[in-house]
Write a structure and sequence with these properties.
two-stranded antiparallel ribbon, single chain, 3% strand, mainly alpha
Length: 352
Amino acid sequence: MVYLAFALCFFASLLITPLVKKFAFRVGATDKPNHRKVHKKIMPRLGGLAIYLSFMAGILFLRPTDAFTWPILIGSLIIIITGMLDDLYELSAKYKLLGQLAAALVVVLNGVDIDFINLPFGGQLEFGFLAIPLTILWIVGITNAVNLIDGLDGLAAGVSSIALITISFMAFLKGDLFVFALGMILLASTLGFLAFNFHPAKIFMGDTGALFLGYMIAVLSLLGFKNVTFFSLIIPVIILGVPISDTLFAIVRRLIHKKPLSAPDKSHLHHRLLSSGFSHRQAVLVIYAMAILFGLTAIVFSMATVWGSLLIVAVLLVIIELIVEVMGLVSEDYKPLIRFMKARISAYNRGR
């Protein structure tokens, strides 16, 4: 049934996306070029509506009976309406945040939260009254992280697809058929859209798509890894390593340069790759490769021992830091690890 639903959603997305493209032009949901953007002509957005409608076709076909089905559907409808209004009327950050909080609250108040984690060396950490705000922070944070990487043709759709493949695969291994089914139909809907969104794109997903994908990935990752071990809680963080790290360093960059957190800039990972000489398509493929690396690491991490998990996290943090310094994601002068490594190499060469 799931595989039939996958095929249904994929072909539905292929059929619906051109219709949404025409609809976007008709209602004026278009993205105009400016100094911050890469595209050179007016582009239709609202593409996320095609992903959502295809996903809903899969829901109608599967008719899941899990207790979380309705909260997820209501929350996703709120996030879709928020995204569509932004694509049509460019909502202020305040109203977009209100929509995201409302969507997060719907699922959190219906049981999608992290109550506790089992610590690696024994014992249990209860979150108590912090469970709800921490879960809301996760959902809103991931929703915006996916939105922030939506800066090149096919980037957010591709990275989201890689995350969904990883989440669905791990849910299948755990026997969580609900998360597996939802992950698969969302993946199929996104891949169908990606056929029109990869460079050169014919349509953008807009905030409708980026917010919807971010929201659904955040919720599915919570359902797949809630109330388990400390290290299991890290798995969704690793899976979403690309958007999370890009968002984190964007925040650091703005704090260092004393700019508002909501201020746009052209120093995200995809911008830095373009300025380093990569073509549009090459930059997207490099980030895909990074997302695949994070996904594979998450799978290996889930099977590792405690000490193996610690080693994987340490190596991953070093790799992320090197990428940040080489690409100048914080600033051109921020290179502490590279300087340290050069100093160690120089000291070693002098001692020979």
